[in-house]
Structures are given as structure tokens and as C-alpha cells.
């Protein structure tokens, strides 16, 4: 999704903005641009395609190198208007005195455009965003903050914007509603970005803007107003991610780096949160007393994509371990379906980014209906984390690859901790709790053992890289794991892959099976294995090639199938973790074989901040 970075300080702004844009590339984009303001000058440079092309274009403006120390920049992911240099941001007013970058969607842009055109304003682009700069030019009477405030008051929809003007060198005005913005506080310089990863090289001190906030950002200070134009102070948060965490290191892709980080990220998710002796989990962020926990009668999990799949694994945990009736909702359905929330319903929104529009809306719906809401987020201070009020952070570090890997495993690990806590609060004995806690503690090591087989998985993936349709089947907790495996494959290799409950095959999809449709069967040695063996036979009878994930040493599965990826022995609760990692590697190596652009798959954005 679109990315914003702005800088004001005493260093040349162009290289800082370009570096920031490169760090936002992972969000997905089709064009990029920047606007720089010096004393009385405004320079706008925009290009279709990669940030590298924008950088080449900037080389044609050597005067920007030294003395232009303020500017804004943007990576655009087309929504209104085709990807083109004209539609790329920033957008400038007619006299090139004001420039804006915008994330979000202006829903009433048709009316605003008609109104502005009637008054004689000329539009260059076909975007919804351009109206904002003309509204600012129209409202301007010497004060950029007030003009921006007057402009955004007329917008319906969502926005995160940054504004500069040649009349105010050194000043950036930023405003937010529904699209994240975060101020980075530096020494003699300040920044604004849509995503903290763009800020990390210069600062780790940040202020998250709330919806309705508007800020004037100068090198030496910030003037922050809330929705009613009242000056406000907001908490300064310290980010514990460092810039290296958001870099590839020696890995060819962020996705592979993040897959390999999982022993540590799962370790981070459980560190300090297990009490082996009491057989319990310690989750302070939940802020729920044992009495509150005991009163929970139902759990509803809401999320999208991989986060929803993690939630579906969690559904098995909460019902099986804690005996609490649980359902999982696609977050968009939750928001529009008028969900039933009873006084003791616990709603768990799950979101890596904490900025997914549908999940934010689900949080608001749940909070508005008086539910207990506990979020699972990775990005500290993100909208969902703040609006839910309480929650458990994943501590997975920045996830840059568009395809989620380490966030998924951390979500599963944290859901298991929550189920342990709720289980101990009701039907689980101390010794049962201790046994589960010890298994959870082993999870990072089990993941490590899967990673050690990366070369074997690569060799298997190579044999299947030419197929265009895959089925993934599983049962129990491995059913949502199959969905997640199929999602990984389609996202990064553009191969059609369908995840199914293994029992569902016979109810229709089996009609498709033949030698051109490989089946990934999750046949780990956990309850349900015998049934999966039956499903494998059915697939083979239709000549479908079968790749199984099986428990180390399972000769029976080996004999039944064409290829096997072995994972270490573990209980049904832990099995989704090593299995998901094996499937991530399988998808990754297929995408490599097919020559796909792995970290920024076509049409996808890291954080889906629009509906
Ligand atoms: C899949 C993927 C997406 C996200 C989904 C939710 O690899 O990355 O399906 O899981 O867009 O994003 P978050 O978790 O940020 O709410």
C-alpha cells in the first residue's frame, strides 16, 4: 500500500527521502515521487516504477544535493487512476506553491473536484488525492496548518497526508484520519512516515498520530493539535527494533530472512510468558484478572489473511485446551454482519501491522458493543493495539516481506499461550498445564530442525515448480495450516493453490484431481493421521502426485507418497508451527524456481489500509 516519508532538518533531504522510500518498498507500489522545498522553491520529481528510477531522475537536479533540507515523498499503489508519473504523488497546486502526499481514499472526491473545477482550478491527474492540494491552496491565508485543517474538514474517507509549501521552507504539516502516520523525533531534525521502518535509520523515538490529529513539524519542534484544534501532547514511544532488523542482511529476500528468524521470533513471543512450574502462561498485557478470565463464555477472533488463519488455529486451541466456544470471523464480515456480542464475549482481533482497515473496523464494532477486546499485534503503538486498549504483542520484529511468515508463527504461539492461561483458569490441571508449557518451550527448537532441512525442501520444490495447480489438505489444527500453506504459494509464486479440509475433498474438489494437480497432504503423526492416509490413497487413485508433510521416521507415509517433507515429532498443538515453516520454505523455493519477485508480489500490499 502507499508509503509516506517526510523530512525536515539540517541535512540534505533528497537522500534521506529516497532511503525512506526504499524502506517502504516492501509495502508494494507502482510509482514514486518527492517534493523538496527550499527558500521560495518547490521541486517535484515523479517516476513510474521503482524508487531506483526516481533516484536516477533526482540525479538530474544536483542543486538538491546540499541545501534543500525539507521535503516529502511517496510510493503510490494505484487505486484511482492508472500508474503513471502524472498520477504519482506528490500533487502540487497550479502555482507549485503547495505539495501533498496522501495515503487513503477521498470518498467525496467527485463532488470536491466538480466544486473546485467550477471555481477554475485545473487538475493534472485522475487521482482522488489531487483535490486535497487545491483545497489547501484555496483555504490558504498565510498559515499552512490552518489551511490544511480547513481542507481535511471537507474530506470524507480516509487520509494520512503530509504537506509542504515553498512559502514555509522547513515546515511539514501532517494530518491523519484512518491511515497511519507516525512522527520520528530526531536531534535537530524531525520526520513523518506512514510506517516506522522508514524512520529507523534516523530515530527510534516516535509519536503516533491519532485520528483527527494535525501536526506542524519543524526541525526544532512539533506543534500537535487534536480533532478540535486543541493543542495536545502525545506520548513519545521508544521503538525497540533497530535498522538492521529491517534490512536483508545476507539473505536474498526478506521472506527467506524472516522464515529463518522464526526460532528467535517464536522464542521472543514466549519469552518470560511461561511459568513451567505452575503450568501456566503469564500475559500481563491482557489485563484480565483470574475472575475476569473465568467469566469469559465465548471467544470471537477477527482478522484477515494469514492473521485469520492463525486465528483458526487458535479456535482449536481455545476449544480443545480451555473448553471455550470460539468462532473466527473474516474481519470485514464481522464489521458488516451485526455480530452478536454478549457481555462475556472476548473478542481477539489479530493483525501483524495493526493497521488493516477491516480489522480496525472490527475492533471499533466490538469496543462499541461493549465486548472485552484483546488484540494480538506485532507493531507496537499501531492503531489496533491502541484502540483495543489491551493486548499481547508478538515481538516478532519488523516483518518486511509482503507474505507473512514470522508474524503467523508468533500469532499461533501467542494464541497457544492464551489458551494455556484460559485452560488453567478452568479445566486444565497443573501437571497438564506444565506438560503443555514444556511443549511450547520446545517449539523454537522444532522450527530450527525444519530449517535445517531447507536444502531438501528446495530439491522437492524444484520437482514441483512447473505445476500450475495445487491442493493443500489437512485436518484439525493442520486444516488452517493447509490454508496458510496454500496462501503462501499463491501469493509469491502466482500458482493456483487451494487449501481444503481433507474430508472436504470428496465433496467436490476431488473432481479436479489428476496427474496435473499435486496434493500437499499434512499427514503428521497426530490424531487424524489415519484418516489423512485414506485421503492420500484417494488422491493417488486419481493419479495426483502427493507430497506429504509427515513426522520424522514415518515410513508408511513415505511409501504412500511421491515426496515427503519430514518434521519433528510433536503434539497436535505444536504441529502447526514446524509444519507452517516447512510449507513457507516449499512456497519460497517454488517462487524462486519460477523467477518470481518474492518480496513484492504483484498486486499485493503489505498493509491493507483501505477496504
Ligand atoms: C499473507 C498476508 C496477508 C495478511 C493480511 C492481514 O501473507 O500477509 O494475508 O496476513 O493482509 O494483515 P495484518 O496481519 O497486518 O492485519
Description:
This protein starts with a strand and ends in an 18-residue tail after the last helix. By secondary structure, the protein is an alpha/beta fold. A hairpin with a 2-residue loop joins strand 12 (214-218) and strand 13 (221-225). 37% of the residues lie in helices and 22% in strands. The strands form five sheets. It has an eight-stranded antiparallel sheet with strand order 3-2-4-1-10-9-11-14, with helices on one face. Strands 5-6-7-8-12-13 form a six-stranded antiparallel sheet, with helices on one face. The protein has a five-stranded parallel sheet with strand order 18-17-19-20-21, with helices on both faces. The longest helix has 22 residues, at 430-451. The protein folds into three domains: 3-245, Aminohydrolase, N-terminal nucleophile (Ntn) domain (Glutamine Phosphoribosylpyrophosphate, subunit 1, domain 1); 248-451, Rossmann fold (3-Layer(aba) Sandwich), CATH 3.40.50.10490; 453-602, Rossmann fold (3-Layer(aba) Sandwich). Helix 14 runs antiparallel to helix 15 (430-451). The structure holds fructose -6-phosphate. Fructose -6-phosphate is lined by residues 304-307, 351-353, 356, 359, 403-404, 487, 491, 607-608. Fructose -6-phosphate binds at residues 304-307, 351-353, 356, 359, 403-404, 487, 491, 607-608.
Amino acid at each position: 500500500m502507499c508509503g509516506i516519508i517526510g523530512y525536515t532538518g539540517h541535512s540534505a533531504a533528497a537522500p534521506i527521502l529516497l532511503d525512506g522510500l526504499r524502506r517502504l518498498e516492501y509495502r508494494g507500489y507502482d510509482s514514486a515521487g518527492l517534493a523538496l522545498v527550499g527558500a521560495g522553491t518547490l521541486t517535484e520529481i515523479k517516476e513510474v516504477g521503482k524508487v531506483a528510477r526516481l533516484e536516477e531522475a533526482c540525479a538530474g537536479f544536483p542543486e538538491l544535493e546540499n541545501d534543500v533540507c525539507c521535503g516529502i515523498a511517496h510510493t503510490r499503489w494505484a487505486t484511482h487512476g492508472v500508474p503513471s508519473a502524472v498520477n504519482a504523488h506528490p500533487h502540487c497546486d497550479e502555482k507549485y506553491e503547495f505539495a501533498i502526499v496522501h495515503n487513503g481514499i477521498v470518498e467525496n472526491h467527485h463532488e470536491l473536484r466538480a466544486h473546485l473545477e467550477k471555481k477554475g482550478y485545473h487538475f493534472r491527474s485522475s487521482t482522488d488525492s489531487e483535490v486535497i492540494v487545491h483545497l489547501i491552496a484555496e483555504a490558504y491565508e498565510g498559515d499552512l496548518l490552518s489551511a490544511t485543517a480547513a481542507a481535511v474538514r471537507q474530506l470524507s474517507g480516509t487520509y494520512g497526508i503530509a504537506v509542504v509549501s515553498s512559502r514555509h521552507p522547513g515546515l511539514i504539516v501532517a494530518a491523519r484520519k484512518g491511515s497511519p502516520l507516525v512522527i520520528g523525533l530526531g536531534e535537530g531534525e524531525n520526520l513523518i512516515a506512514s510506517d516506522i521502518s522508514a524512520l529507523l535509520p534516523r530515530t527510534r523515538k516516535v509519536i503516533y498520530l491519532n485520528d483527527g490529529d494535525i501536526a506542524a513539524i519543524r526541525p526544532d519542534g512539533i506543534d500537535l493539535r487534536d480533532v478540535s484544534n486543541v493543542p495536545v501532547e502525545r506520548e513519545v514511544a521508544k521503538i525497540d527494533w533497530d535498522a538492521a532488523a529491517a534490512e536483508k542482511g545476507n539473505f536474498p529476500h526478506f521472506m527467506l530472512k524472516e522464515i529463518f528468524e522464526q526460532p528467535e521470533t517464536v522464542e521472543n513471543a514466549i519469552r518470560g510468558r511461561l511459568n513451567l512450574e505452575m503450568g501456566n502462561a503469564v500475559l500481563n498485557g491482557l489485563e484480565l484478572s483470574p475472575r475476569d478470565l473465568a467469566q469469559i463464555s465465548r471467544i470471537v477472533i477477527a482478522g484477515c489473511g494469514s492473521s485469520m488463519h492463525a486465528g483458526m488455529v487458535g479456535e482449536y486451541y481455545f476449544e480443545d485446551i480451555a473448553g471455550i466456544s470460539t468462532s473466527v470471523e473474516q474481519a470485514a464480515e464481522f464489521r458488516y454482519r451485526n455480530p452478536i456480542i454478549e457481555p462475556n464475549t472476548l473478542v481477539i482481533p489479530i493483525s501483524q501491522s495493526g493497521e488493516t482497515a477491516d480489522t480496525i473496523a472490527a475492533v471499533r464494532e466490538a469496543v462499541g458493543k461493549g465486548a472485552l477486546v484483546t488484540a494480538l499485534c506485532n507493531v507496537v503503538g499501531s492503531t489496533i493495539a491502541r484502540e483495543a486498549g489491551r493486548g499481547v504483542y508478538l515481538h516478532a520484529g519488523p516483518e518486511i516481506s509482503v507474505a507473512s511468515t514470522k508474524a503467523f508463527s508468533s500469532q499461533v504461539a501467542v494464541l497457544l499461550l492464551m489458551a494455556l492461561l484460559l485452560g488453567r483458569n478452568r479445566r486444565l490441571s497443573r501437571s497438564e498445564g506444565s506438560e503443555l508449557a514444556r511443549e511450547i518451550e520446545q517449539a523454537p527448537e522444532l522450527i530450527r530442525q525444519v530449517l535445517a532441512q531447507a536444502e531438501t525442501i528446495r530439491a522437492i520444490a524444484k520437482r514441483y515448480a512447473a505445476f500450475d495447480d495445487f491442493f493443500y489438505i489437512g485436518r484439525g489444527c493442520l486444516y488452517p495450516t493447509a490454508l496458510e500453506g496454500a496462501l503462501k504459494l499463491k501469493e509469491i509464486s502466482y500458482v493456483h493453490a487451494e487449501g481444503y479440509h481433507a474430508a472436504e475433498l470428496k465433496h467436490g474438489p476431488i473432481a479436479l484431481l489428476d496427474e496435473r494437480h499435486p496434493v500437499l497432504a499434512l499427514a503428521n503423526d497426530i490424531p487424524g493421521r489415519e484418516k489423512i492416509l485414506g485421503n492420500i490413497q484417494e488422491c493417488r487413485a486419481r493419479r495426483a502426485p502427493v507430497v506429504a508433510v509427515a513426522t520424522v521416521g514415518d515410513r508408511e507415509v513415505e511409501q504412500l507418497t511421491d515426496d515427503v517433507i519430514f518434521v519433528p515429532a510433536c503434539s497436535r498443538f505444536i504441529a502447526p508451527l514446524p509444519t507452517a515453516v516447512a510449507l513457507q520454505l516449499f512456497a519460497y523455493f517454488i517462487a524462486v524456481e519460477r523467477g518470481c519477485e518474492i518480496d513484492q508480489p504483484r498486486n499485493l500490499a503489505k498493509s491493507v489500509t483501505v477496504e
